[in-house]
Specification:
By secondary structure, the chain is mostly helical. The chain has one domain. It has helices at residues 3-23, 38-51, 54-66, 74-109, 126-131, 137-140, 155-165, 167-177, 183-192, 203-217, 222-226, 231-246, 251-273, 282-312, 316-344, 346-352; strands at 197-198, 201-202. A hairpin with a 2-residue loop joins β1 and β2 (201-202).
Amino acid sequence: MTELSSRVISSLRFPMIAAVIAIHCNFVIYYPELQQKDLFYFLFDLTETLICVSVPIFFFISGYLFFKEGTLDYDLYKKKITKRVHSLVIPYILWNAIYFVIIAILQLAIPGFMFILHKSILLFSWQDYLWIFWDISKITHLPSDQASCLVGAFWFLQCLFLMCLISPILYVFIKYLKKAFIIIPLSIFFFFNFGLFAPGINSEAIIFFSIGAYLSMMKIDFAYYLQRIPLWLSLVIMILMMLCIVYDCNGYINLLCTLLLQISVLCIFSNLGKRTYWMNNNYLIGSIFFIFAIHRMFTATLIRISGKVIGILDNDVLLYFYYLLVIAIAILMSLLSYHVMLRLFPRLTNLLNGNRL
């Protein structure tokens, strides 16, 4: 992997995790009457369209880095899986346990408290205690509950670790199919249309992890090629694709626009990554897993508070700026939590952060 690709990937990490937090600040789901506010909803829809590129890009980066050596033998596979156990599985278990303990305490202290887990812990069976680590919808049996673990955003980790586990299969396919392999993830992209979702299995994970793996194994430096596209052209393409998606182009055109939007974002960061003034902040990069894990505690609270604020704000522009403010507050509160934990409990923070410090 070249220095440029490494720099671009590093520069992507914090903006993309900020975008993930922004996705979870979507209070329009809880207050659907906001869809009637035309200007606000248009601006909101544009923003949602852009920030939704973050998850595919994270899967792409993960696949690209996993195969950065261009090969995969038994010893290397064992080394990589062992590393992922420390960086993904252990913090995955710890964070789910922490969330459960916090929710249990609040349920016992506040009658009727049903935050995230829509079932009293007093009614738990022994199987329920296991389901919190994999699929809470099996506990509540509510269609509104996502088929994921207690820390809902960790569906990403479920899928990512599974893709790492099956990486030898990907390696064999890429090695023997070579350039023809790219047809497989692109076919899934256009024909499945992100319809595959279950704990540990997601079409986005399969598609973009595979594309990243393919480019890495084929020694294709994505940043080198994408940075040759002028920055202004990348910005124009990004805006046009956002508008096409917002205006709901049908079928394959919408999917093509989605793919081009993701590529345009990578083009922009590849252009910025080659400039000498584009600096990577190691502190922010080191914080991304922690704030990824903790941010739902803040976004859920902010969304509840937003119900009262929304009723006061009649102006669409002010409402949109309030939406941006909610995102900024959620990011800052998550960063502040990381900072405090790092200062007070550095070893525990490193463990919760997947040994990334």
